[in-house]
Amino acid sequence: METQLDWSAYDSYGAGDAYAALPAEGGAYGKAAAVCIGNRQCQRSEKGVMCPSFRVTQDTAHSTQHRAATLKAALNGEYGPKPFLGPELQAAMDLCVSCKGCKRECPNGVDMALLRVEALAQRWSQSGRVPLRERLLANLPRLAPWLGRLGWLLRLRERLPLLARLLERGLGISAQRSLPQGAKRSFLSHAPQQAVGTEDGREVVLLVDTFSNHFEPATAQAALDVLLAAGYRVHIARPASGQRPLCCGRTYLSNGLVEQARAEAKRVVEALEPYAERGLPIIGLEPSCLLMLRDEYYALGFGEQTAKIAKSALLLEEFLAKEHDGKRLNLPLQPLPGVQALVHGHCHQKAFGAMKAMRKVLGLVPGLQTELIESSCCGMAGSFGLESEHYDVSMQMGELALLPKLREADLQTLVIANGTSCRHQIRDGAQREGLHLARVLQAALGKPAPADETSESDSVEVKEAPAEV
Ligand code: SF4
Ligand code: SF4
Q: Rounded CA gap, 454 and 329, in Å?
């Protein structure tokens, strides 16, 4: 079996008991599955157990252990010559939301999110086709500019339930979901081409992801405002001239289109390499995008080439917290008097330990009292919650803790969520507007709200937040 991802990191991973029963096929991919020793800690029923699909169903068939065991059986030939097309593996993987909870909390660090990507890629390869919905969702970076121009059509879908239902039947996108409204003008279409900020300020690189660029340019602008206010000299990462904006490749990878994800990652690596060589911090906003540089880029085969980039890649909150610890942060934040904030962490922020930084940076805003919501995955998980067959379970995941907590909060309480899809789930499930940390810091700098040239959703965010925001 030829794998599409690079699993060589598992060649020598944890040799010992875990390898007592290596699958017959799959090589290092099989080893990565065999890392699960089946002690079923992921099937404990108490609150807080890692896997959201098990938490919500309480069914071992939707646990990490079962997924790993099914994958091992598939690689042992128990489901026939084309196991990736069979119902067993598809059913086992169906509710995995790729949250990386297992990578963080399983005692052996089983990375089911990555194992699932390879399983999907093998499925497309064995079937010889990728379904239309998955192709559309994967190609979001290419479609996003059109979504901005076709906002009227998306709004029409929201007003005409029949149209939403027709689209659900044709595409498998839930009629019960709102769809993200693209911005009229992307951030990168008018962002500075050359470095901006204090001439002798510390140089940093801002890597603007597809979601911030096309759907919430106000968030990218807020991050730029914050970095400039702190005195940094900011380079905005761009591809070689004439190419479309950079994209980390997340949407392709999540949908099992490994080659396309690799092509996106290659452009990112080429654009960032010169900065990484100079040791400049590379700052990102969307957790699932930026953290790909530190994680999946290795599995995409960039190896050593990505090592320097991975070292330099930081979420905005990680960068600011580090600067604060190093006594280099000079951000003139003003109080937001009496303001309470509820913070929902993106799964990948939690998996990579970024919530501490989030708390630290929010603590720099005078008067802001923050509470971290004890929640697992919000349930949207990229495009998972958009898929019609997953809508119910997606909402159940949100209802476990996040959505009830938000409904209890008064309207003056800020809702802070750094994940685009988390904000989408919050909007759909609790009718609240979540803000990225960058927007809160921008408000605390006394910056005016962004001009109304963004999408509808951006405007709403600004309106609902307290006066300073
Ligand atoms: S996934 Fe981790 S916690 Fe669950 S059975 Fe396997 S080793 Fe144990
Ligand atoms: S990635 Fe998340 S949903 Fe998937 S098996 Fe791991 S903990 Fe469960």
A: 30
Q: Whose CA is nearest to atom 6 of ligand 2?
A: 102
Paired residues of 200 in beta bridges: none
Q: What is the pLDDT of residue 338?
A: 66
Cα separation, 443 vs 437, whole angstroms: 10
In sequence order, the 6+-apart residues with CB closer than 8 A to the CB of 128 are: none
Q: How far apart are CA 35 and CA 202, in angstroms?
A: 43
Quick one: tokens of 56? Answer: 């919500």
Task: Tell me which amino acid residue 381 is.
Answer: A
Give the 3-state secondary structure of residue 282. strand
Residue 13 has pLDDT above 70, yes or no: no
- Tell me if 422 sits within 8 A of 346, measured CB to CB: yes
Asked whether the whole model's pTM tops 0.85, one would answer: yes
Of 202, 413, 191, 208, nearest to 316 by C-alpha is 208
Substitution candidate for ligand 1 out of 65, 67, 102, 114 with most atoms within 8 A of CB: 65
**Tens digits of per-residue pLDDT, 387-430?**
999 999 999 999 999 999 999 999 999 999 999 999 999 999 99
**Residue 402: enclosing H or E segment and its boundaries?**
helix 402-408
- The structural domains of the chain, ordered by start, are 8-127 (no CATH), 132-171 (no CATH), 196-321 (3.40.50), 331-464 (3.40.50)
The per-residue DSSP string of 113-152 comes to HHHHHHHHHHHHHHHT---HHHHHHHTHHHHHHHHHHTHH
Residues with CB under 6 Å of ligand 1 are 36-42, 64-65, 68, 102, 106-108, 110
pLDDT tens across 300-332, in order? Answer: 999 888 999 999 999 999 999 999 999 999 999
Nearest CA to ligand 1 atom 2: 106
Per-residue burial over 293-314, b = 16 or more CB atoms within 10 Å of its CB, e = otherwise: bbbbbbbbbbeeebebbbebbb
The helix (H) or strand (E) run that includes residue 235 is strand 233-236
